[in-house]
């Protein structure tokens, strides 16, 4: 039987799963060692893999843009500059290793065994501290020529916005639809220091101010997704990340606005919720290793 490792490198923890070609067999974590510019991260992963058994290959997802050849163009929160973690991990372990962006890995995982299973073409939209996306086309990841495919969080939705986005521009999608953006809009609306989760909780109980914040977030998100679908035309859009914990209140409202703004040929695109939670990345990385 063939075995594969899926490795999801985050800023605080590295999640690792050992899979066969059908399912997750074992899951474990180790802290992300960002000391000395992150130079010990891969050696720590290699040691962990050796301790958990042989495999036929591995996939690694990292928080930064990744080119099809595995070259990473900086992972700021890991301390990495331009590097090739796939090649380096192959040298350390002897395994064939493939690399991708963490959001892309989550998209491939959801397409394989999560909310997007059964579809060959999906767009996963991750709603967390920021907004990201991964695109699977014909069962394969779309990387883009600069490794930046899926950076939909920085679509300009309102050029008149006065607030500054973390990227340096104004009116980006993630200023309205991320957990950070929703909390900021809630403060502006007079709700005080509340989290995005609390805003959705209050909205679910009928609080009118919270409902207006949710409506604004879903309007902008639905419009942004409609724009992306006019280019990619996926079979389904899967909503993931921490904000997706709001469940049907989020999904139904995003779907409503997506249908309002979408090009007529795309209006039948399914809007779904992710199912793998924080493990989507390890599933996707393992699937990448199987290809």
Structure in words:
The structure is a single chain. Helices cover 37% and strands 22% of the residues. The protein has helices spanning 35-38, 41-51, 85-93, 102-113, 174-177, 179-188, 196-204, 208-232, 248-261, 280-290; strands at residues 4-9, 13-19, 24-31, 57-62, 72-75, 80-83, 97-101, 122-127, 131-137, 140-141, 236-240, 270-273. Strands 3-2-1-4-7 form a five-stranded mixed sheet. Strands 10-9-8-11-12 form a five-stranded mixed sheet, sandwiched between helices. Strand 5 and strand 6 (80-83) form a beta hairpin. Helix 6 (179-188) runs antiparallel to helix 8 and helix 7 packs across helix 8. The two termini are 16 Å apart.
Q: Summarize the main sheet.
A: 5 strands, mixed
H-E string: EEEHHEEEHEHEEEHHHHEHEH
Distance between the termini: 16 Å
Shape: globular
Count of individual beta strands: 12
Mean pLDDT: 95
Number of domains: 2
Oligomer: single chain
Helical region count?
10
What is the CATH architecture descriptor of the largest domain? 2-Layer Sandwich
Q: Could you tell me the strand content as a percent range?
A: 15-25%
Helical amount: 25-40%
């Amino acid at each position: 039987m063939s075995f594969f490792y899926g490795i999801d490198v985050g800023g605080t923890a590295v999640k690792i799963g050992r899979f066969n070609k059908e399912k997750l067999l074992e899951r474990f974590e180790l802290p992300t060692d960002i000391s000395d510019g992150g130079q010990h991260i891969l050696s720590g992963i290699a040691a962990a893999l050796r301790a958990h058994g042989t495999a036929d290959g591995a996939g690694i997802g990292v928080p930064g843009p990744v080119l099809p050849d595995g070259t990473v163009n900086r992972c700021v929160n890991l301390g990495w500059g331009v590097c090739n973690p796939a090649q380096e991990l192959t040298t350390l372990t002897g395994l064939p290793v493939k690399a991708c962006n963490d959001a892309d890995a989550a998209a491939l995982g959801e397409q394989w065994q999560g909310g997007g299973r059964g579809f060959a073409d999906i767009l996963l939209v991750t709603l967390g501290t920021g907004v990201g996306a991964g695109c699977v086309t014909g069962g394969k990841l779309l990387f883009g020529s600069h490794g930046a495919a899926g950076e939909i969080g920085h679509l300009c939705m309102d050029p008149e916005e006065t607030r500054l986005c973390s990227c340096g521009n104004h009116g980006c999608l993630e200023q309205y639809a991320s957990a950070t953006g929703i909390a900021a809009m809630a403060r502006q609306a007079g709700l005080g220091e509340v989290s995005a989760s609390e805003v959705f909780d209050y909205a679910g109980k009928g609080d009118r101010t919270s409902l207006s914040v949710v409506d604004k977030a879903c309007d902008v998100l639905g419009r942004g997704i409609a724009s992306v679908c006019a280019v990619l035309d996926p079979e389904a859009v899967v909503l993931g990340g921490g904000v997706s914990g709001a469940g049907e209140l989020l999904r139904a409202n995003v779907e409503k606005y997506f249908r309002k703004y979408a090009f007529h040929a795309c209006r039948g695109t399914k809007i779904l919720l992710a199912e793998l939670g924080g493990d989507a990345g390890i599933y996707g990385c393992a699937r990448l290793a199987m290809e």
